[in-house]
């Protein structure tokens, strides 16, 4: 079994939360990268709350990411499309 990639994301009050990265993807025509993650402490049976962000890697440290909120409907539609594809392929592999 492949080890999950995890990231820590602080909330508005500065409290840090651990997330499991479901997948990342790049959009060639915009040269932007996105990641989709779920809270690590979420129980398997619970309804999953999914978070998506645009991200940039720091040039001097690729493990250090800067996250940005997704702000446009076009970006959300793209993320939802990728999530649907990911979910379908995940269902097929189980």
TrEMBL record:
Originating species: Alkalibacillus haloalkaliphilus
What family classification does the UniProt entry report for this protein?
Answer: Belongs to the UPF0473 family.
Q: Which InterPro entries match?
A: UPF0473 (IPR009711)
Domain of life per record: Bacteria
Entries under Pfam families matching the protein? DUF1292
Highest lineage ranks of the organism? Bacteria, Bacillati, Bacillota, Bacilli, Bacillales
What protein name applies here?
UPF0473 protein AHA02nite_22300
Database matches in HAMAP family: UPF0473 (MF_01448)
């Amino acid at each position: 079994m492949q080890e999950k990639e995890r990231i820590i994301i602080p909330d508005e009050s500065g409290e840090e939360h651990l997330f499991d990265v479901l997948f990342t993807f790049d959009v060639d025509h915009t040269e932007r990268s996105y990641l989709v993650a779920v809270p690590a402490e979420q129980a398997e049976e619970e309804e999953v709350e999914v978070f998506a962000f645009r991200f940039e890697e720091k040039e001097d440290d690729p493990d250090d990411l800067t996250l940005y909120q997704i702000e446009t409907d076009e970006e959300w539609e793209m993320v939802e499309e990728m999530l649907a594809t990911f979910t379908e392929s995940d269902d097929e592999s189980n």
